[in-house]
Write a structure and sequence with these properties.
Structural class: alpha/beta
CATH topology: Rossmann fold
Largest sheet: 7 strands, mixed
Distance between the termini: 36 Å
CATH class: Alpha Beta
Number of helices: 7
Strand order of the largest sheet: 3-2-1-4-5-7-6
Strand content: 15-25%
Helix content: 40-55%
C-alpha cells in the first residue's frame, strides 16, 4: 500500500478527533469503505482537469490524486473547517491539488470552468446540480458518483434526464459507482 495513502489516513483520523470530519472510526474502516472503493474507480478517471464536489474529508479525490499524480485536481468544499483540513492535506502530504472553499452551485455558475472528470460522494444529486455538472464537463467528459444501491436508482434517473450515457459498476462494500459520460 502506498505510504502517502497511509499518511493521509493517519492525518484524517487524527484531525477527525478534533474537528469531526468523517464517520470513519479507524484506519481499517477508512480503507475498507472509503479509500479502497475510491481507488477502484481510477480506470474511469479521464486524464486532465478533475473536480471533486463536496470534498469533505477528501474521499474520493485525495486517494485518487495520490494514486495518479498526472491529473490536476480541484477539491470543492463549502464548509470552512473541512476546506482547511483539505489544505492541510495538500501541504503535509504534499499534493498538487487546489482547494476551493465555495458551494458547488456558485462555483459551477462560472462558465470558464470545464473538467474532464467530476466526482461526487456523499452529496445529494439534484436535477439542478446534475445540469450544472454536465454543463461543466468537457466533451466526452465523465461524471462519477459514489453512492449506495438504493440511491443509485434515483440518481440514474436524474442523470438520464440530463442527457448523459450512464453505466454502473459495483465496487467493494456495497458502493455503487455511477459512470455518466457526456456525449
Amino acid at each position: 500500500m502506498n505510504q502517502k495513502l497511509r499518511d493521509y489516513a493517519k492525518l484524517l483520523l487524527s484531525e477527525n478527533r478534533r474537528f469531526n470530519l468523517t464517520s470513519f472510526k479507524n484506519e481499517e474502516e477508512l480503507f475498507k469503505v472509503g479509500i479502497d472503493p475510491s481507488l477502484q474507480a481510477i480506470d474511469f478517471i479521464k486524464k486532465g482537469k478533475c473536480l471533486d464536489i463536496g470534498s469533505g474529508s477528501g474521499i474520493p479525490a485525495i486517494p485518487l490524486a495520490i494514486s495518479d499524480e498526472e491529473n490536476a485536481w480541484t477539491l470543492l468544499e463549502a464548509n470552512h473547517k473541512k476546506a482547511s483540513f483539505l489544505l492541510k492535506c495538500a501541504l503535509e502530504l504534499p499534493l498538487k491539488i487546489e482547494i476551493i472553499n465555495q458551494n458547488a452551485e456558485a462555483f459551477l455558475k462560472d462558465k470558464e470552468n470545464f473538467f474532464d472528470t467530476i466526482t461526487l460522494r456523499q452529496v445529494k444529486l439534484t436535477d439542478r446540480l446534475c445540469k450544472m455538472v454536465v454543463n461543466s464537463l468537457k466533451n466526452k467528459g465523465v461524471f462519477l458518483i459514489f453512492t449506495g444501491i438504493l440511491t443509485s436508482l434515483n440518481y440514474k434517473d436524474i442523470l438520464l434526464k440530463c442527457g448523459v450515457k450512464v453505466s454502473t459498476k459495483e465496487l467493494k462494500n456495497k458502493v455503487v459507482l455511477l459512470i455518466a459520460k457526456k456525449i
